[in-house]
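S., here's the first fold you wanted:
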Amino acid sequence: MKPILSVVAVVVLGLVLVPGRVVAVQDAGTGTVVINMEPGQVMLEFVGQMVDVPTDLPGTNQFGFLSFIRGLKPIFMTDSPPFDRTTAKFGFFTRVTTTREIANGPLVVITREGVTGISFTPCPLCLSPMVGIASSDSLIPDLLIQTSRLRQQVVIDNDTRSFSVVNVNTITETRPFNLGGTEFQLGQVGQIFRTSLAGQLDPVRLTEGHFAGYAVGVPSSSVVPLLQ
């Protein structure tokens, strides 16, 4: 990554300055506006669904759209209702494999590991969630703008069929995208964000559910690296 100017990139979309911190900065060499995963700031907001995958290693596919990106707020305020999966400009998917389950009274605590991708496109699995469970790679074109690896904890309340999710994502790849004539990059390799989600399982199809939540930037120095 080339040196980054310590200035706020105030462009057509009105990038933001957090008091005392710069959220979006411009690469001096390429002109790309980098939206950093600023520690302590809400950077992303998610609306999505989940479908458990019946495979040899239990896992789940989680997918949906972003309803907010700090630094790009104006584009989320210009669409007329409804703002939903059919009008979203940014989608995401998470594919994780279960590594452990613990029963604790009415609660089930599930640990998973996997990958998350964010795309500059309507979410690739939203319109037909069962398509892509078998061949999801074919539904994710060259529009991925960020990939990250994650560790996930899910807590399911069997009494209410509600659940909460915490992901810790470390960015492994980014790709610039053009919006309004400006080239943007969502985060930088090595940056970390923590996602908190709350959801409800479908009362009939208990392997499916809906959720929403947000992601906050995390200082890289505060996270212990995963053992290989």
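And the second, which I think is the more interesting of the pair:
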Amino acid sequence: MKTAETDKELVEQALGGRVEAFNLLVWRWQRQLYNFLLRLTGNRSVAEDICQEAFLRSYLNLKELRERERFASWLFRIAVNLYRTDRRRPAPLAADCAELSDSGNARDSAHPMSREMQLAIRTLISRLEPELREVVLLRFFHGFQFDEMSGILDCPVGTLKSRLYKAVDELRTGLESQK
């Protein structure tokens, strides 16, 4: 077995009955999906629950995935839909932002930004409207392109660009008010 199998190959193997292939997909995407959900919800327990449910639903509905090479986008779409169906959760609290910095994102630790600035940005992100927060997290924290985000959020690219512009403007204003 080669070690760098693509998502498409793993999906096809899982559909062929190889459970280990789906386990590899879980291993590959679990951390990124959990980090996204943690930043989106601001709550470890809720993020874990949605993450588990998203993987379960993706496994049960794997045969429905038409573009097998886009497993990650499809998985994130499932998670966003689960989050949106139960948005009665309270908004993330600023105190929860400390746990958001424990997410294990390598890009965070490699960035020269001060710890205080990182916490300020994370706090501001947690205060964004959910639609704006989703776009910021997918684009800047997880590196999705607009066409992928469009599929995940079921939203036109133009709307996503508008939301991202608005979110960045709100973040900029929030940072300037903290100076």
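Why I say that: Confidence is low (pLDDT under 50) at residues 89-110. Residues 19-41 form the longest helix (23 residues).

Talk tomorrow,
H.
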